[in-house]
Amino acid sequence: PPAPERVLFPPTFSVSEIKNKQRRHFMFLRWKQQQRKEKLAAKKKRKKEREALGDKAPPKAIPKTIENQRVYDETTVDPNDEEVAFDEATDEFAPYFNRQTVPKILITTSDRPRGRTVRFCEQLSTVIPNSHVYYRRGLALKRIIPQCIARDFTDLIVINEDRKIPNGLVLSHLPDGPTAHFRMSSVRLRKEIKRKGKEPTEHKPEVILNNFTTRLGHSIGRMFASLFPHDPQFIGRQVATFHNQRDYIFFRFHRYIFKSEKKVGLQELGPRFTLKLRSLQKGTFDSKFGEYEWIHKRREMDTSRRKFHL
Fold this sequence. Notes:
310 residues; alpha+beta; Rossmann fold; 2 domains; eleven-stranded mixed beta sheet; 7 helices; 11 strands; elongated; ribosome biogenesis; Ribosome production factor 1; IMP4/RPF1; rRNA processing; Brix
């Protein structure tokens, strides 16, 4: 019998023109399969050509990603810039970086928090050394801040919730600010993380800050750095990571284990969450008369998918 012919779609044919839903789905899957085969064949052909050329093969093309196509930002920081060095020597975080202050953090919540937010705050306090959890019952933040300053707290973290789910984080550096408002998403508590390690110990963790490249990113990075004590206790092998990608800040807390001289295993300890900066305010929390350094305006700022602010 003659060999079955390959399905050839007419050049102007669109699967969406097929009226029958099942047939349309079937033809779409077939079309996808054909695309995959062609892609694989082209890949094999390229590989053979590279092997045939050996050392003369041209270097592999770097795939285009949103990150490496990023629109240049004029506020990107050059590490050797004297102006930046001067700003950092005189900003609100300078006393911390000069080791004049020791971080002491108050973690509080929106009014009358529910179970999940309560557990999240407790777990966050095991990640940040020298942090204390206080549940608000109708007390305004304006009243809390002077009390924090009087008791030598260096930072205030407020976890907001909506329908029992943590959805916002306010980080205020005391006594003079600044204050950052973040939208929080993808919160995972310890028990919801697969293959998690044992409970974290009380050792001071190391801190990794990735990709905070602009002036705004630098400020946010310094803000996160000043939550943790200076000298990490490497014996605890615990690492807190703030990784910025496309203006989303991913937080992870790991313990590393040396399996051999070359291999390192990672255990996630949790919790994990994602932050998106909404605004940066000068001074401490003031929703009415606060002066804003930066506000995320979606309609104006999100016109290009390749423009990032951190």
